TrEMBL record:
<feature type="domain" description="Reverse transcriptase">
    <location>
        <begin position="231"/>
        <end position="512"/>
    </location>
</feature>
<keyword id="KW-0812">Transmembrane</keyword>
<dbReference type="GO" id="GO:0071897">
    <property type="term" value="P:DNA biosynthetic process"/>
</dbReference>
<dbReference type="InterPro" id="IPR000477">
    <property type="entry name" value="RT_dom"/>
</dbReference>
<dbReference type="InterPro" id="IPR043502">
    <property type="entry name" value="DNA/RNA_pol_sf"/>
</dbReference>
<feature type="transmembrane region" description="Helical">
    <location>
        <begin position="6"/>
        <end position="26"/>
    </location>
</feature>
<keyword id="KW-1133">Transmembrane helix</keyword>
<keyword id="KW-0472">Membrane</keyword>
<protein>
    <recommendedName>
        <fullName>Reverse transcriptase domain-containing protein</fullName>
    </recommendedName>
</protein>
<dbReference type="Pfam" id="PF00078">
    <property type="entry name" value="RVT_1"/>
</dbReference>
Length: 707
């Protein structure tokens, strides 16, 4: 024990020596300066050379008018034409360079467009007053402390008093691990790779150090950081200086003077994130290797996404309807779930998962006694003034803005699916704190009975974990075919509150409706794409085709492709709406007449049509998720042409053909034989992408006709 205490003392001394030396050098190289804020109306592409050229033209023009020299005026007019051409060229170079070098093309595009159309940015995050009861506070220092107090006491004031605990214990769903997690030391090569993988950002924690500085100094920092990180893991101590978060309140919606309408944006020191990333990589390898994550949990896991979560859930609904069952979904909303995590409960769960010894001690040190302060910036007489609240200790939650936080949260909810009665893999779908329960039965009464019983179990589990369900935002929805109109409303209560039944709602980023027609979602996507078309139209005057293509992918392709493997099962009329918008975008980018054909231009620009993208996504989903589907050749030993094709699932209803997996299997079977023997998923993906880019499809039927 004495040796351990000595080691801890030495480790702490080494870290503080390193950190203080680093910050001393940083402050010398990048001293803080006082800044003044002015509204900059100058055009960023208008260089000093252009200003000098303009001044010369003005002077020559004045001289020509004064002397009435026609030759001089003629020269002035020519210089003026050249000047306008130079302005246009400078503007094009600036805009193209700005967009092509941007890490957030969407944000950069709208900044340029807002300047172009004269729209000013909102100043909602310049918080100059806050209402607390009947009192209006305008002092920035008081406001920052009010925000910090609100965030610190949120769980104690708004969550815990409303959580209803059940005295009857739930069955143990933890599935304790007998093995033990072994934390490997980090080496210089791995740490360099981790540092360089961070995105180049200039946001900083309380110490003011951006990741870009760490990257430039990596060769000098890597050796001491390797030693410090390994010592930290051995001693089980996470440095106190790395446990301080800087909070910036960001306005969400509603009244700008209401403190509850601001979400906290947490900024952590970059060195803390390097420590976290090293541990994160080891924990994820361990959890994946031991298969410790719930299969139903799609959040923050490799190979899983919002799309895989939604596709699994929708496929389960369609399966049940095809089998003649009544189906309903309960879409649950958790209130401040990440902020409500109890560190002590989380540490017990991690211990059950095999995280013990120094690593558990390290995670305890990482989670306990964290501190935060709120920083506000206000502009006063052109001076940018920073107001900071007092430091306060955080009692609950996984650290916001952290790398370890999300993975620890999904560990926190581990075991939730197994509390469901008659538990099967497809009864529930989770994406982080989005919990979606699927209930089915032979009658509406069966649905109500099953829903009430299972919701009680889920509510019990969440209450034991200090998490509150937002009853007003929790919805229930029945699913059925358009031919089945005889639907009886459900009466499902959650802890005494009736859950609202809806015919459409937002589900994992998609607008889902009773019939899975996806009409409302296509309306939503079309509005987003139209906004992107406006951006293309405005930028087409001074951007190259390559730059416009980047804007297309940021504003149009991203909106169309999100969840397309699911909502692509909508009507041809709906997909044609999106295809028409895509064609309009291509014509705008290439400055083509409104009636010209652009089918070949999709391939030339390496852009998929909405139909090509739909088939591409469905094939990839089936390739990754339908590995257990039997091949036709498994039924016989004959060398037939289709022996490497998948068996098409049998079904009763046309409705079944909306399934992402069904469409994917059908399309895989129609691919050329060169695809059939490719087992490497990455190679298959690249081959398929090239193949689909070469086929600008205007319908799904066209894919099957061409094969």
């Amino acid at each position: 024990q004495l040796l351990l205490i000595l080691f801890i003392f030495i480790f702490t001394f080494f870290f503080y020596t390193f950190y203080n030396t680093f910050m001393y050098c940083f402050d010398i190289c990048f001293p803080l300066v006082k800044t003044r804020h002015f509204e900059n109306d100058m055009l960023p592409w208008f260089s000093n050379e252009l200003r000098y050229e303009r001044q010369n033209i003005i002077e020559l023009n004045n001289l020509g008018r004064l002397t009435k020299n026609n030759e001089l005026l003629k020269v002035t007019r020519k210089l003026n034409r050249d000047f306008k051409s130079n302005i246009s060229k400078a503007k094009k170079e600036y805009v193209n360079n700005k967009i092509s070098c941007s890490s957030n093309i969407s944000k950069t595009t709208w900044k340029i467009l807002n300047r172009e159309i004269g729209s000013k940015n909102s100043t909602r995050n310049n918080i100059d007053k806050i209402h607390i009861g009947d009192v209006v506070h305008t002092n920035p220092s008081i406001i920052s402390n009010l925000f910090n107090d609100y965030y610190i006491n949120l769980v104690d004031n708004e969550i815990i008093p409303k959580v209803t605990h059940n005295s009857m214990p739930l069955p143990d769903t933890s599935l304790k691990q007998s093995g033990k997690f072994m934390c490997e030391p980090v080496n210089e090569a791995e740490l360099l790779k981790i540092i360089m993988a961070f995105e180049n950002k200039f946001s900083t924690g309380y110490d003011g150090v951006p990741i870009i500085v760490i990257k430039h100094a990596k060769d000098y920092l890597v050796k001491p950081l390797v030693h410090l990180i390994n010592s930290s893991f051995i001693s089980g101590i996470f440095p106190e200086k790395l446990k301080i978060a800087k909070i910036r309140p960001m306005h969400k919606k509603g009244c700008i003077t209401d403190i509850s309408n601001y979400r906290p944006l947490a900024l952590l020191p970059v060195i803390s994130k390097i420590y976290e990333k090293v541990m994160h990589n080891r924990l994820v390898r361990y959890f994946d290797g031991k298969k410790l994550f719930d299969s139903e949990q799609h959040g923050f896991r490799h190979g899983h996404s919002v799309t895989t979560a939604a596709a699994d859930y929708i496929d389960s609904i369609i399966n049940s309807i095809d089998q003649g069952e009544k189906v309903a979904g309960v879409l649950m909303d958790l209130h401040k779930a990440f902020d409500s995590v109890s560190p002590l409960i989380l540490l017990d769960i991690l211990s059950d998962l095999g995280i013990r010894g120094p690593v558990l001690k390290w995670l305890c040190s990482y989670l306990i006694d964290r501190q935060q302060f709120v920083e506000l910036f206000t502009v006063n007489n052109h001076n940018v003034v920073s107001s900071k609240s007092k430091l306060k200790t955080v009692k609950y939650g996984v650290p916001q803005g952290s790398i370890l936080g999300p993975i620890l949260f999904i560990c926190y909810l581990r075991g939730l699916p197994r509390v469901i009665l008659n538990y099967t893999f497809k009864n529930i779908c989770m994406f982080a704190d989005d919990i979606n329960l699927l209930i089915k039965g032979k009658s509406p009464f069966d649905l109500e009975t099953s829903a009430i019983a299972n919701l009680a179990k889920i509510l019990h589990f969440l209450a034991d974990h200090n998490i509150l369900v937002n009853k007003s935002k929790t919805k229930v929805m029945q699913f059925f075919t358009k031919a089945n109109n005889n639907i009886i409303p459900l009466h499902i209560h959650l802890d005494g509150t009736k859950i609202e039944e809806v015919s459409e709602t937002k589900f994992l980023g998609l607008v889902v409706d009773n019939n899975l027609s996806w009409d409302q979602h296509v309306d939503y996507v079309a509005k987003k794409v139209s906004s992107g078309l406006f951006a293309l139209y405005k930028l087409a005057k001074f951007c190259t085709v390559d730059t416009l293509r980047l804007v297309y992918f940021a504003h149009i392709h991203s909106n169309i492709s999100f969840g397309l493997s699911i909502y692509g099962a909508t009507s041809k009329k709906n997909l044609d709406r999106l295809l028409i918008l895509q064609k309009r975008a291509i014509r705008t980018m290439l400055q083509l007449p409104s009636q010209s054909s652009v089918k070949e231009e999709f391939s030339n620009l390496n852009i998929m049509t909405v139909y090509s993208c739909y088939i591409y996504q469905c094939i990839l989903y089936a390739k990754q998720n339908c590995k257990s589907t039997l091949l036709l050749g498994n039924n016989h030993s004959y060398e037939t042409r289709n022996r490497n094709n998948f068996m098409i699932p049998s079904h009763k209803l046309k409705f079944f053909e909306k399934k992402t997996s069904y469409v994917g299997i059908k399309c895989i079977n129609r691919l050329p034989s060169v695809f059939k023997n490719v087992t490497n998923y990455d190679k298959f993906t690249n081959m398929l992408k090239s193949y689909m880019l070469s086929k600008p499809l205007y319908s799904v039927e066209e894919f099957f006709e061409q094969m």
